[in-house]
Amino acid sequence: MRKLILEKITIISHSTKSARQFEFGRNLTLITADDGNSVGKSTLAKMIFWSFGCEPFFSSGWKELDCSSIISFSIDGEPYSIHRYKNEISLRKYGQPLKVYDKITGYFAAIFAELVNFDVLLPKKNSFDLEIPPPAYYFLPFYIDQKRTWVKPWDSFSNLQQYSKWAQPVISYHSGLISKEHFVIEEDIYEVKAQVDEVENNINELSSAVAILKNNIIQQDYTADYESLASEMLKYEELIKYNLEESSKLKVDIIGLDSQLKLAESIIRELDKDYIFSVENMNEGSIECPTCGTIHENSIAHRSSILIDKEKAERQLSLLLNEKLHLQDNLTDLNRMLLELKEKLLNVQLAFESSNSKEFLEFTTNNVDKQVEVIVEKKAAVLETKKVKEKGLKKTQKDLITKEKRSAIKENFANTFFKYITKLKVNIDASLIKSPLDYNKIYEVGGAAEDARAVLGYYLALYEHISEHCHEMVPPLVIDTPNQQEQSTENYNKIVEAIARGVTENKQYIICAMQHSALATLSKDAKIIRLDERKILSASEYEEAKDLEDQFLFI
């Protein structure tokens, strides 16, 4: 058996500047007091589980103390410590750096679950996503709360309903009816479930859309001229097409004119250069071209011809510019007309689409209906495939543990439970309790005192069953106030004997109880934590505890 052993807990109140440290016995710890029930026995038990990230039911007065805690423990002999303040939790394995988590769920829950071999995965509410639950679900079978557990099963912590269907998988895992591999397949199942849900939603949405469209057709008054509107649309589409063709021609002409303008401008620049060059060399009868070496005449007549050519080129440039402006004006007009035509076409289209044309709507709806039928048929085939896959995965999951082995596990628990209720003298039909999942049947077996003994028998049997047959780390069993409902001295003696029966070197028990002669046998071998009027916290221990906390967090 692999186990989690508690060693000590330090509790610090920051509002009252008080603290206390408690050490636990290796096998048995008895938390007791001489007088009254208000000295903190239950609160100390609750603080054990709070330190690990659970949410016990504290009194409002305790919550106001603004406490932090450090709990030291070992897992298979490896020492660990956890510090918690509000929802910030820190974990340290001896000799390794501190790991700090800003919440209990998520990363810390995953790390802790791995440490204690708690392999359960639970679906988030309204989701198909599985996640590792927080430590409360691991500690549930190992804590009998002073008030709640004695009257309601598996209810020692708050916030358990964050998962809607947690009880069966959690109890089944603790009792060995399902394994780690079960949850590996569960992830595949939920992935398929998400796909099935998506396909079903798509089919419903498509069917609803068609139904709404058909309903609108039935309710409308049909008066519009369908053919006239269609003719108008065709007319404007033709005009727009013609406009675009004319605009395209104009753009081509403008591009051609731009090329001619560039050529004319280039000719003018060259003629201007020729004239300047000839004037600068007017004393000579001829000149040599500086570029190609050709001899040109440089007479007055020749220079005049250059000016005449330049003037013709400039007139040509002016004509080209005027023609370009004219074409640009025509293009602007066409663009304006295009906008007007598009606006008119849009208006007709809107009138056509929103018209009361029964023929058009029925035609559209019938086409949509047919298309939807084809899509739905395809999706229905996909849906059936997914459901077959889900069914196959569930069968594989069920076959992980044979029917014979499952029956053997249930029988082992039932036999152990029978031994305990016989010892506790509980008058119950033991054949009703066939597995740990039958926990509801142990309540209301008789009077309140007998019900309490039946509950104790169930938890003692479950603890023994988990210790001997399951793979998770087994923590201490914490029993708060076993003397429930004013048990007779004889029955209380039997309660103590039943608890003592399970105390061995391989298990750790923590019992919270008032001083009573029946506890004498347990007290001999127990670590005694005796609370007095100081209750849990003491101002004299605050500074030492605060130094310990600072060292844990910052060194």
UniProtKB/TrEMBL annotation:
Superkingdom assignment: Bacteria
Keyword presence, Coiled coil: yes
Coiled coil: 189-216, 310-351
Sorted UniProt keywords: Coiled coil
Protein name per Swiss-Prot or TrEMBL: Rad50/SbcC-type AAA domain-containing protein
